[in-house]
Predict the structure.
Amino acid sequence: MNNLEKLTDEFSKVSTSTSPIGIYIVQDGRFKLVSPQFQKLSGYGEDELLGLGSLMLGLPEDRSMVREDSVKMLELE
């Protein structure tokens, strides 16, 4: 890991740990980073969330709609 990557990683950790809002990063459909506030809002701990599929927090009947909406949102980038 180079210096820029280290600084970016440290900035992410500090930003998310002190934020009053819930922050998370999803990569390949799974949680990679979850802030303490997001943990509090979701009712799950970091160890439970990391690696969990992000669609698992929603209702089963809503998952296909959320997946479709997520794909549409990403296509706009």
User: Anything to note?
Assistant: Residues 3-75 form a domain with the Beta-Lactamase fold (CATH 3.30.450.20).
